[in-house]
Fold this protein.
Amino acid sequence: MSGHVVVPVRIYVTVFLALMSLTALTTGVAYIDLGRWNTVAALAIAVTKMLLVVLFFMHVKYATGLTRVIIIAGFFWLGIMIALSLSDELTRGWEIVPKAWGTGMIMPFLSRFF
Amino acid sequence: MAETAVHGAHAHPPGFAHQFEDIEQQREAGTLGMWVFLVTEILFFGGMFASYIIYRSLHYPAFEIGSHLLEVKFGALNTAVLICSSLTMAMAIHSAQVGRSKSTIIFYLILTMILGAAFLGFKFTFEWHRDYVEHIMPGFGFVFRPEWGSNAPQVEMFMCFYFFMTGLHALHMIVGLGVLTVLAIMTAKNRFSSEYYAPLEISGLYWHFVDIVWIFLFPLLYLIGGRY
């Protein structure tokens, strides 16, 4: 499956142009004050670029299910590593009974990232 | 005996290994194996990204100061150079797939190498050398600036992250250049055909993976907190 599919040059060039445009976009957005949404925009663009490279340049769009499972497992384990590391680090300062759940807890929690 | 007979009946393409049913199964096994390796690479770089996230959450102001010590224009330029190199790598594999001449494949491989070398050249001269001269290279005469105030030690830590992450990435680029050299030699020796080009395909996966790492390093290191 992965080998027989020959991706047309047209698709490669389209993906290339999209990647270049997104690079210009992420650089441009950094010069606009969006507050904490600057980080969200930068990461959203980076993930989009990654998906373009993985799906088309790395032929995963045309890959077998087995290969896809391996790739998804890799990102899943990366997610475990990051999430569990943060669940330790970010909760060390918490009190045994938090004073205020809801907005009072959640926003300071989020504001530590960006 | 029977196997020998089957073997004699089939004209196997060069590069076909006997343990596989057919070239298609061999291709899939190679792709799968390469992805297993790349998953270990994801987690290898992931350790650095995880610690980056934790320390950024703890010392955000210092990370913002540190990020603004870097030149966005060089980061963006190198991102563009790497994306170009990914396109030329994809074109090298495409050329092999559709059976273009070996000089076409070698042309794209060398173009990829030139772009990869340009990335490293920009990195070493415009960025790392400038950082050294400006005393913001940890371990090589790092000097705290008064305007950083109490954030200074964490600014140095950000620069450590910067050098370790971009350094590890650059190391992967150098390995990639070595791999591309071997591929160009193999192509010149007529080792590939439109049936068998697995080394090109899986090396391409590696090259694109290194590109993806940079796609994340650029916003995470250069664009913290915006530049307005």
About this structure: Chain B touches chain A through 56 residues (CB under 8 Å). Residues 1-6 of chain B have pLDDT under 50 and may be disordered.
